Amino acid sequence: MPSVIGHHHSTRSILLGALLCLTVAVPRVTAQSLPTPETFLGFPVGADNKLAHWDQIFEYLHMASESSDRIMMEVLGKSTLGRDFPLMTITSAENMGDLDRLQEINQRLYNPDSIADETEARRLIDEGKVVVFITCAIHASEIGSTQMVLELVHRLATEESPYIQNILDNVIFLLVPSLNPDGQAMEVDWFNRTFGTEYEGAGLPWLYHHYTGHDNNRDAYMFTQAETRLIGQVLYHDWFPEVWLDEHQMGASGARIFIMPAAGPPNPNVDPWIYRTAGLLGFAQGQALDEEGKTGVLYGERFTYWWQGAMAWTGWWHNMVGMLSELASARNMASPSETPMAPEGPPAAAEEQPAGGRRMGGGPPRDLTARPEYLVPWRGGRWSLRDIVDYEYIITFALLDACADMRENMLSGIYAVNRRTVDKGRAGHPSGIIIPADQHDAPTVVKLLQILNRGGLKIDRATSAFTADGTQELCQGPSRTAGLSHRHSALRRNRLEPGHADGS
Ligand SMILES: [Zn+2]
Description:
CATH superfamily of the largest domain: Zn peptidases
Number of domains: 2
Mean pLDDT: 87
Distance between the termini: 22 Å
Strand content: 5-15%
Order of helices and strands: EHHHHEEHHHEHHEHHEEHEEEEHHHEEH
Bound molecules: zinc ion
Structural class: alpha/beta
Shape: globular
Number of helices: 16
CATH class of the largest domain: Alpha Beta
Radius of gyration: 24 Å
């Protein structure tokens, strides 16, 4: 079970021996006295060649949860290498006191069969909040978002303004400050160890995810890794967020940021409302960047709606508005880069470089053709970790703000899409998949069912023989597969205890 830090003080001393020392050493703070990230770290977030280490980020977020009734930190479980893996829940104090009911409302909007009629649906839509799930830095060297969250959480914890109150009232913000805390710690340790030496800039010599490296972002449909399993519980069992943004970084040249919508082709099996809303929210982010005068904003190119193995994009299959952001990287994670400025005048050879640009090297940017997808091309100059933090801070608040403003629109849309999906499933073919119990490798069947269950699939077990499509299906008696029967009882609860699936 996840342990809860912050508001459930009775459990804290049992579950968090190590943190207890921390809370004794640090005097209790209030929201007003929560130090700024700069005071806490001793340097401004995003300063050249400076990185907040995972241990500091965890400590700061814990302090925020202790000081503010808007912030709750839960440790969902352990990362691959044994670090605490936190989820931050951020919403108004009033919503925080009513979290169980708000969670149930959201679960029901994602389970239209639990809603009696349109009158009840309307009531749930009126009372519900938009659940926004944001995940940071699954690719640990794409480190900016793990730094940005310090300023993000500080502002949400302390600011008294109509702008922040609107977000807190209408949104339940679930923040995973790092999808790969092990890698974050490795990368910062490696940066500090090599910085200023002849090895500065050498990449980490081992994988930033212990087993999967970069491919931890191809695991969201098969749940082989501890981190994926932890968020699978949040996504497909506990919360069913309407929106899921996964924050990444890309190459250092070309566009400064990619936002939604992505490029074609679309997958015809994803409801158009999902793609459309991803674009709408992406445009809200782009508009906020425009307001701040940020350039190099790209959408609709380079990243496609057809690639569906990535984290947030697997949310599409669950009617979640899966979104991606990709920031241009700085040199060696935290060192500023200086790119020669492109000469003024018309672009000479815009075609030579793909949008977003993968080309490395010292030349000026070549993609200088203004177009709807790239209104103000980036022309070169200085680019630092602070720039990455600024862009990510702007798009994160823009997303929260847009979701707060569109609360009713978002929830009624999600309900309609979920209703349509269930109706289509019932009318379509196939309307269900039968997995015969009588198989030569029963444990592997169970393993498959457990993976599907992690992804939120409902699994029912026949209790008597039946006929489907003219084929007689037998019901497997418990006497022949005692193990299967036992495990299946867990599946029928539609919720697996952590560690349960490793048996085979
Ligand atoms: Zn990435």
